[in-house]
Design a protein that fits this description.
single chain, alpha/beta, Rossmann fold, GMP Synthetase, Chain A, domain 3, 2 domains, three-stranded mixed beta sheet, about 20% strand, binds guanosine-5'-triphosphate, binds magnesium ion
């Protein structure tokens, strides 16, 4: 399949609804929009600007990489496999007089099962509720039908959009000019910022511009907070990132990780137990590897990442288990926080 072809479209029933008017009412029945609860005083003296900025774009364009670059810390895992991000992840970037709450999102896609349905629903929900959008396109691939479809949805939603042309490190100046020219056909009323999220090039002007677009408002998070994720989810994601690095084809999509236990041993060492769910015996075999070699390597790499995150030594216990239909199990998806 040509990777530039869209894997979704309006005809597939994927729709971005019209935006909620100011106020962002919370639905008392569903409890939706919980982020509005985060609004608390605590801003420094004087006028501050703030807002929720959602990341829109096809899978693999570099949304999570950009969030990490802006926040200045790894709050979202990154991989070269599409559909890495499965939850809305808030990453906080606080300056002396502004706070951007970036909302990293799954790539826009056609739902195929409960997992991807939930992911797509979350995208629609967050795009409807945010104050502004970073819409990322992949400079290396140029503008494709998938990008055009997202642009139309953003226009229909009347979103404040900043267009980010990412991965410019992969292009010559002539190629870049051609891509920038192509962005005109999206018909967006948006400033265009060519950047490299991976090499953190041209990020500052992007932040400055976004701050200018946002209204005056309070800080929603403590200025020392980088993310709102539960620690168990963050750690599980660090394990999944190592799995993604070492697996191919259908395996990355078939894997989810759940931290089932965090306990401190008598000698003070923190033990983290994580379940790696897969869908088939063959995938379990791949992840365990010959003589347990693969899971050992995943564990060693993930332990390093987790120790860096927690700033202490840990013992990591990984268990690879088959759970055939986890992508379709509503209760498990609820428990995993994919909603
Ligand atoms: N060369 C280059 N690669 C980049 C850049 N930004 C991101 N990447 C790579 O692109 C791949 C996808 O990055 P992600 O940040 O996971 O992309 P995403 O849009 O969050 O993907 P999904 O979560 O699957 O929707 C990774 O291999 C990144 O290292 C960039 O500026 N230049
Ligand atoms: Mg991502």
């Amino acid at each position: 399949m040509n990777e530039r072809e869209p894997q979704y479209g309006p005809e597939d029933g994927v729709e971005l609804p019209i935006p909620t008017p100011p106020g962002k009412e919370q639905d008392p029945n569903t409890g939706d929009h919980p982020e509005t609860d985060l609004r608390s005083p605590g801003s420094p003296e004087g006028k501050t600007r703030s807002g929720f900025v959602a990341l829109a774009g096809r899978p693999n364009v570099g949304k999570s990489t950009l969030v990490n670059a802006v926040v200045g810390r790894k709050v979202a895992i990154v991989s070269d496999k599409p559909q890495t991000t499965r939850r809305a992840i808030r990453g906080v970037c606080t300056g002396s007089d502004f706070q951007l709450v970036l909302v990293d999102l799954p790539g826009v896609q056609r739902p195929r099962d409960q997992l991807t349905e939930r992911m797509q629903r979350r995208v629609e929900h967050e795009l409807r509720d945010c104050d502004a959008v970073f819409f990322l396109v992949n400079a290396e691939e140029g503008i494709g039908p998938g990008d055009r479809w997202i642009a139309e949805a953003l226009k229909a939603a009347n979103a404040k959009v900043v267009l980010v042309v990412n991965k410019i490190d992969r292009l010559s100046p002539t190629q870049l000019i051609k891509v920038l020219d192509e962005t005109n056909e999206l018909g967006l009323n948006a400033e265009v910022f060519p950047i490299s999220a991976r090499y953190e090039e041209h990020i500052e002007p992007l932040i400055d511009h976004m701050v200018d677009l946002l209204p005056e408002g309070p800080f929603y998070f403590d200025s020392s907070d980088a993310t709102d994720q539960r620690i168990e989810i963050l750690l599980a994601e660090l394990v999944r990132e190592q799995v993604l690095r070492r697996t191919f084809q259908e395996v990355p999509h078939a894997v989810e990780v759940e931290v089932s236990e965090m306990t401190r041993r008598e000698d003070g060492l923190l033990t983290v137990v994580a379940q790696i769910w897969v869908e088939a015996d063959s995938q379990q075999g791949i992840l365990i590897g010959k003589g347990g070699e693969m899971v050992k390597r995943i564990g060693q790499a993930a332990r390093g990442e987790i120790e860096q995150e927690l700033d202490e030594h840990i013992h990591l216990d990984l268990k690879v288990r088959v759970r055939k239909n986890w992508r379709r199990e509503d209760r498990l998806l609820d428990r995993l926080g994919i909603e």
